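[Archive record]
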Amino acid sequence: MVNITKYLDPKLIKFLDKDTRDNVIKSLVSLLKNEGKIDEESHLFDAIVEREKIVTTGIGMGVAIPHAKLQDYDDFFIAVGILSEGADWDALDGNPVRLVFLIGGPDDKQTEYLQILSSLTLALKDPERRKKMLTAESPEQVVKLFKEL
C-alpha cells in the first residue's frame, strides 16, 4: 500500500464545470502541462482516450481513474478534477462521474502503478471521503482527506 499524498499536489487539483469526458481529460492534461509535469499534451491525451476505448475507467461511485503509462515519464503523477456537475463516462454503474483522478507515469514501473491504483481505489471506496471531496473548497482540503488514511 502506497501513500497517495506522495502523488497529490494542490496545484494539480482543479474544480471543473466541464461536461464531457474528453473535456475533463483535456482540462487535466492541460493543467499538467501548465504545471510542468508533462512537456506535450497530445501524447498523454491520446493515450488516455485510447485506453478508454478498451474499457471505461469510470469505476462507479461517481469516480473515474483515467490513466496512461508512457516511456516519456520518469515518475508517476495524479491530476484531480472535481466536477460541479456529473459527466457521462460510461461508468460501470451507469452513473455520472464527479471525481476524476488522472494518473500518468512511466511504462516500466508496473508494480508501483498497481500499488497507486489499489491504494487510490481503496481510499475512494469510503463514501464519506467522496462526499467531503465534493464539498471541498480548496485543493489543500482535498489533499488533507488523503492524509487521514
In short: The first strand starts at residue 13 and ends at 16. Residues 110-124 form the longest helix (15 residues).
